[in-house]
Amino acid sequence: MPVGNHLPHGETAQGGPLKRELGERHIRLMALGACIGVGLFLGSAKAIEMAGPAIMLSYIIGGLAILVIMRALGEMAVHNPVAGSFSRYAQDYLGPLAGFLTGWNYWFLWLVTCVAEITAVAVYMGVWFPDVPRWIWALAALVSMGSINLIAVKAFGEFEFWFALIKIVTIIAMVVGGIGVIAFGFGNDGVALGISNLWAHGGFMPNGVQGVLMSLQMVMFAYLGVEMIGLTAGEAKNPQKTIPNAIGSVFWRILLFYVGALFVILSIYPWNEIGTQGSPFVMTFERLGIKTAAGIINFVVITAALSSCNGGIFSTGRMLYSLAQNGQAPAGFAKTSNGGVPRRALLLSIGALLLGVLLNYMVPEKVFVWVTAIATFGAIWTWVMILLAQLKFRKGLSASERAGLKYRMWLYPVSSYLALAFLVLVVGLMAYFPDTRVALYVGPAFLVLLTVLFYMFKLQPTNVTQGAVRSAS
Known about the structure:
It is a single chain. This protein is an all-alpha fold. The chain has a single domain (21-460), classed as Amino acid/polyamine transporter I (Up-down Bundle). Helix content is 69%, strand content 1%. It has helices at 24-35, 38-51, 55-79, 86-94, 96-128, 134-151, 153-184, 208-222, 228-231, 239-268, 280-287, 293-325, 343-362, 367-395, 399-403, 414-432, 434-437, 439-456, and strands at 18-20, 469-471. The protein has a two-stranded parallel ribbon. Helix 3 (55-79) crosses helix 8 (208-222), helix 5 runs antiparallel to helix 12 (293-325) and helix 6 (134-151) packs antiparallel against helix 13 (343-362). The radius of gyration is 22 Å and the shape is globular.
């Protein structure tokens, strides 16, 4: 087998290192881009229907659980920044099977998430081009985002930065404009609307505590992707600095964007009217006198979906690369290009995503609901593994090692156990809804299949050192 620079297609030898080319701004915007997806722009109406204005409380509760999970991941990532992140930590602290399941589960999670995102692109391109078959737009989205990932990690980071920025600017514009409507009467003949809509239609919690609980499973899907910060540790320029900064800032910004946007929407419109006249974002921009609001939001939703797909392809490639380095995927996927890109791992992921194009051809009306539910289950598994690994990691440290941690979990171990209990609650809520119940069939079945394969092929981790990186030149 050829080695070094003589590998075909400009590849490096097996276990070739990734490059540390992602700066703090890339990592922050990547996590924001992954979380602020089509769910906020399109799924918020359904969540509001369940909880009313109290949906803001649901996002705060879910956000606090995510903050605990991210602190747990950050503690391990700063201590040991490796490619594969939580898959490697699950292996090191919970055992080889846990690492294997977590790695392949995360690969599958982002695979189905990307299917959802390219489906969203196809649906909303159809608004402008109704005569073009949906699968063509899904294929175009996949090819374009796949190509960006294959160039270089820096190219991926730049594209993701600008994609995410479009979404963030849109939300900020809506929040600022909405505050103008609420406080100064913009678009309402100068009559300030105030915030009485938050309680004037059945109270702040019109459907009671049950409504808040029922909305949690939808809320948690919105947070899917924030753990991508940990996955970038192997390619961050200065992980000891960038990871903690990114975790703190991303959490508060996500909470501000979600809760801030919903506060504006729910203050301007009665909660029980939202969703009956289209997207609440479109309604708010139209209230400000922007007649092209529908077209603007359509464009933003498309970029939101492309952004999430872009990050998802990145995640699947890096996780498969990590698994291959560890002997738990074919060794060829551990090869990288001279630019430090795991192209073979990326190409397999992109190839698998062609199934999403096929689904858009065969069952275009059902594919989105199916894959989002399955992705939520996969995310919860990942978050549970992060928390369990951190508990075991901290328990194994000596007193001096614990004192020397540069980034640590708050209120350990109580916060970890509370977050675990919350995730169990969300799984129970998923079982309550027929549309999301499918995830509790597919997700566990996939984990059982992986377990069988693990023991059948004796896929124990090798002694290959993971997370090898080289500084960007």
